[in-house]
Specification:
eight-stranded mixed sheet, 10 helices, alpha+beta, five-stranded antiparallel sheet, 26% strand
Length: 374
């Protein structure tokens, strides 16, 4: 296996979108197969990989999950190892996530712990969502690889290297994309009565949608409904026959997500009647809330606080979305933030995590897995 720094930089150059991580999968397999194979079981699933490390005296299986996809963002750094894939970038740190997973794998192969470890290289975290289908595939086809507890991390640009942050219970929100297409009838501006104006319909619907959180959701229950993009029309003297709204829904409670979606559908039906048009709703990628297991999260924080190289923080919950929630829906576990000391945030075209975090994090996780396996 190459050095971890080389691996991170190689992976950074080949970002690929969800379920299209062909080069990424091939690269990961090359590194994994360069290790001694005696204790390894390697199984491919679509563009993902599941690797089992046999323990020396296994009583349970500990899981580690890493995401492997990139984002449709054009990189704006001047790094000598910047993305070679035009319009795509590892702007959420998944290149670093994969590197740490490979580092952990190498440690466990060289010096196994008592328990089995399953490392899941999961595709499509950014969309359309790989956690739920790979979880179901494992349950159905390889139940022996389903871990008894599972862990993951995500880089946090705002924290310095050496900082980890998490909390018992809810950490990330339920999230759903939202795409609404309105179809009416195009017409000339001089003859508005012969058209069905979707610019007006979309504008009216947008304002109605903004009342859902303020008037249909309990004010003690956090929720967000944002329309971030709206477009309609072609030229100034043509009434638009089509319009599109694009947004996101985020809630801290799964039931609240259902309430918000029901109200969206009600407003859309009313708009169809009022403007004599057709409306199509697409919720895109929907992610389940990320809820850490209370006991395991407290155990992790206790370990982190006792580690001399680590600053441990109990952080607030956030409206961030992460499909790791589908694993935690059925498997007790923990996901935590790890500081990478970058002035640019997640999904920013200039994001460049501090690479020294690799040398800190790999032994930190290995040490924790050894504690879990005692």
């Amino acid at each position: 296996m190459k050095s971890l720094l080389e691996i991170r930089r190689d992976l950074h150059q080949i970002p690929e979108l969800g379920f299209k991580e062909i080069k990424t999968q091939a690269y990961l397999l090359e590194q994994i197969k360069a290790l001694p194979q005696e204790r390894l079981t390697i199984i491919e699933w679509k563009t993902g990989i599941v690797v089992k490390v046999e323990g020396t005296l296994p009583r349970k299986t500990i899981g580690w999950r890493t995401d492997i996809d990139g984002l449709p963002i054009t990189e704006a750094t001047d790094l000598p190892f910047k993305s070679q894939h035009e319009g795509k970038m590892h702007a959420c740190g998944h290149d670093l996530h994969m590197t740490v997973a490979l580092g952990l794998l190498r440690k466990l192969v060289d010096n196994p712990i008592k328990d089995n470890v399953v490392i899941i290289f999961q595709p499509a975290e950014e969309g359309p969502g790989g956690a739920l289908p790979i979880r179901e595939w494992l349950k159905t086809e390889h139940p022996e690889l389903v871990p008894n507890q599972i862990y993951a991390f995500h880089i946090a640009p705002e924290y310095p290297v050496g900082t980890v942050a998490t909390r018992p219970g809810l950490l990330f929100a339920n999230t759903s994309e939202l795409f609404i297409d309105l179809v009416g009838k195009e017409g000339h501006a001089a003859f508005p009565h012969q058209a069905k104006d979707m610019s007006i319909a979309a504008a009216t619907l947008l304002l109605q949608l903004q009342t859902i959180v303020s008037r249909s959701v309990n004010p003690m229950d956090p929720a967000v409904l944002t329309i971030g993009k709206m477009y309609s029309g072609t030229v100034q003297n043509i009434i638009s026959g089509e319009a599109r709204l694009e947004g996101t829904i985020r809630t801290m409670d799964a039931e609240t997500m259902l309430i918000v979606k029901e109200k969206i559908e009600s407003f859309c039906r009313a708009t169809e009647i009022a403007f004599d048009c057709d409306i199509i709703i697409d919720y895109g990628s929907s992610y389940y809330q990320v809820k850490n297991n209370d006991m395991l999260a407290n155990e992790f924080l206790t370990f982190a606080k006792q580690d001399a190289s680590t600053t441990a923080i109990v952080c607030d919950a956030a409206m961030t979305g992460e499909d790791f929630g589908y694993f935690l829906q059925e498997i007790p576990g923990v996901i935590f933030w790890v500081g990478v000391d970058s002035p640019f945030g997640l999904h920013h075209a200039k994001l460049n995590p501090n690479e020294t975090v690799i040398d800190y994090l790999v032994p930190f996780i290995e040490s924790y897995f050894r504690v879990l396996s005692k």
